[in-house]
From TrEMBL:
It comes from Cereibacter sphaeroides. PROSITE patterns: ABC_TRANSPORTER_1, ABC_TRANSPORTER_2. This is ABC transporter ATP-binding protein. It comes from the Bacteria. The keyword Glycosyltransferase does not apply. Residues 2-250 form the ABC transporter domain. The keyword Nucleotide-binding applies. The lineage of its organism: Bacteria, Pseudomonadati, Pseudomonadota, Alphaproteobacteria, Rhodobacterales. Keywords: ATP-binding, Nucleotide-binding, Transport.
């Protein structure tokens, strides 16, 4: 579905992404791992249109999408979530979901004044859709709660729910487990698997929790210093000498081997 070819993103002399090439297959849950500063989030930001690339190419289903803005990619079904959830705190959880679909009838003054029946009918459909999403995510009890009052893990579920309010094809999840307790992380993992298996979502997941990655992801791609180091199953990547060195450093790697 997504092909990244020789992608670079430089900040002055710093090469955050340095010639990365990878593919994300349709229907997969692809894991993206690597030490801090490896370029993972910058790669996400370039693919998702938040940052222009310095050079390189990104395609989606064979169509070039390099440098397209986030709203254009949104309409193509490419969405991303963030390490820190971006909710509208003064609105209810349900309202946060209902506002996601673009081009709603009530957004124009003409419709608001002269097509009130159509606007109300659309709002009912959106409300029903939001309630269906909340039930799917097992957080129906939070529907009327202000989004600012829910926990960090519940906000991650809410972000996932936003992707369900539109026809998402591929979702990029940035550290979905950050600051989330194990119970809620399992709930998030269950939802990702169900969306993948039942609704055909493709995912790419940045995550440091290797148990979470091992449960969900195949393949796993490891980045370091802006480059792709290795790709394969979780076990193959974990046992790759280049990956061990990237995480531990040559000296620590030799020390661990020496005491084995």
């Amino acid at each position: 579905m997504i092909a990244v070819e020789n992608l670079h993103r430089h900040f002055g002399g710093f090469r955050a992404v340095d010639g990365a090439s990878l593919q994300i297959a349709t229907g997969s849950i692809t894991g993206l791992i690597g030490p801090n500063g490896a370029g993972k989030t910058t790669l996400f930001n370039v693919i998702a249109g938040r940052l222009p690339p310095t050079s390189g190419r990104v395609t989606m289903d064979g169509e070039e999408i390099t440098g397209l803005p986030p709203h254009a990619l949104f309409h193509k079904g490419l969405l991303r979530t963030f390490q820190i959830a971006h909710e509208f705190g003064s609105m209810s959880v349900r309202e946060n979901l209902m506002m996601v679909p673009a081009r709603q009838s009530g957004e124009t003054l003409w419709n608001a004044w002269f097509r009130r029946g159509a606007v109300a009918a659309e709002e009912r459909r959106l409300r029903d859709k939001a309630d269906e999403v909340l039930e799917f995510l097992t957080i129906s009890h939070l529907a009327d709660e202000k989004a600012s009052n829910i926990s960090g893990g519940q906000k991650k579920l809410l972000e996932l729910g936003r992707t369900m309010m539109v026809d998402a094809k591929i979702v990029f999840l940035d550290e979905v487990g950050a600051g989330v307790n194990r119970t809620l992380l399992n709930t998030i993992g269950d939802a990702i698997v169900r969306l993948n298996e039942e609704r055909g979502y493709t995912f790419c997941v940045i995550e440091h929790d290797m148990d979470f990655i091992a449960r969900l992801c195949n393949p796993v791609i490891c980045m370091a210093e802006g480059k792709v180091l290795a790709e394969g199953t979780v076990e193959e990547v974990k046992n790759d000498e280049r990956v061990i060195e990237a995480y531990l450093g040559t000296g620590l790697k030799n020390k661990v081997v020496g005491h084995a």
